[in-house]
Amino acid sequence: MKTIPRSCFRWRDYFLFTIVLVLGVLAALSPTIAEEAKTRAVAAELFGALIKASEASTARLNELESAGTNTVVFTLNSSDDEAKKTIRAAAANAERVGLAFAYWIEVARSPELADRHPEWMASLQTHDEWRRFLPNAPRPKANEVVKTYPWVPILSREPFNAQRERVLKLLADLPTPKLIFLNDLQGAPSACGCGNPLCRWTSDYGKRRTTMPLGDDAAALFVQAIQKASPNAEVIPIWTTECEEHDGHPDGLCAGVGCFNGICWKSYTRQLMPLADRSERLAVLALYKEFQRDIPHYGSAEASWVEFAVKTFKTMPPRHDGTAIPASRIIAIIQAWDVSAEEIEAQREAAMNAGSNGFVEAYDKIEQSWSPKIVRWK
Question: Against a cut of 0.70, is the pTM above it?
Answer without folding.
Answer: yes
